[in-house]
Design goal:
- The chain is an alpha+beta fold.
- The radius of gyration is 23 Å and the shape is globular.
- One of its GO terms (molecular function) is ATP binding.
Amino acid sequence: MFNNNPVVRFGRKCQLVQTSSDIALRLSYGPNGSYAFFKHLTSAGLDERQRQEILEHVECMRQIKSERLAPIIGTYQNGNTLGILLDWMSNGSLHALIYQRDLYPVLPPFVCVQILADVAEGLCHLHSLSPQFVHQALKPSNILLDGKYRAKVSDFGMESLRYLTSNEINQQCRVYLSPERLQGYEPSTADDVYSFGMTCYGMFRRQPPFHGEEKEYPLKLETGITRGLRPQPGMDILLKATNMSCAQRAGLVELVNCCWHQNPKMRPSTADCLGFLRKIQQTFSVEEMEQSVNSLQKEMAEKAFQSPVQEYDISFLDFYCSMVSGKTVQRNRTQSTPEKSHRGVIQFKSQRSASLPCPNSVQSVQTSSPSLPVASHMNGTSLPCENARHHNKFNLTRGCSHHEPRSGGPSRPPNHVQNRNSTKTLIEIRESLVQDMTEGKLNRLLDILRSSQIFSRDEYEVINSKITLTNKVRQFLDICCEKGEEASRTVLQSLSV
């Protein structure tokens, strides 16, 4: 049977580490006790042939190597427990850098540009493979940072195994998906470029794109995105708050506007993005470069930030994985699964149209100038970008090197939460939520309900007064059910149940 994954010797302990976005499993391995991130794959119910197919796919991903890609160390197998091991990065993910303002109050512009260039380089390597390898799930939590804040793209190729993981694409992650992906069309490199543009925007905004809107009006938001809606305020306004030069700001504004162009054929290739960002990097002085990285390292050292860690015997790993595997398998086997190619990458049955023009019934969306990127929206109207195409000193190439997709209907509609009987649904899945809830997820739900004025401050404090996470979750669910449909529906939509 095919299995070239290397044999890895593990220590006798595993750790649960609280990261900025979730709880992570960390294992020590090798003679030096190096750390690896454990990504669980649900293998319960799979026969030997299916397990071997998974191992073949992981081996294909392990063979993809680049300085700007997070290396896959190997696989962990023990009984029904199966997982992928990735190199543990000392500075966490871009998610932490963006959103942990107490740790990183200021992000130096050079570091931001350097990280974006690293990500573009990693994507460029994936897209240069034959056949092309599409990431399909680029977002800040899938961009890891080493000790010098150099970025490595992670989770490439994992989208085709998502039905085996305990992670769903929640509403906050869907804002990074291109209009074509939201409509269910087959993946292409242009989708990664769109996600790259959204990631760039989120870095300088220091909030997720469409922050707040994705929780309150998910259906309306996704419809708007497919019709040309883009985050506000625009990049030009965001960058005015930085100490970047006018030329640097203009270059980044043009880059983002091109990356999230409504027409996928008009988005630049990742090679174009990389070359463009390299030119912007060259405009920073050597002193600026050194000071930028040193300032972040100093912030980290002074605050001596340490993620909360709980250590267990290695046997806990199997127990922990078994708790979530049953629910994951049952949930995903009810969904249609696209076919896989010989490289393990999902091949969707239907393909997209070349330009995905906006529906004719929407009069407010600009469709007469397909060569112009959609820059922003105002009062529901999408505006064509007014970039100085011929005058910008960085001269971003707008020609797209992506394969031209063939026309066809979407293979599947996006999954959305049903609004009926939300309270009943919440009661039915109560114990599953209690088991699967993390501190980060609970805090996010509380923030959503408080900002929506569904929860009062007193209710918020009652929940936080509970000592254990389990008791907090139970109190939280009790209050939601007492409040009825609005609270229950908001929770289900936020969790993408």
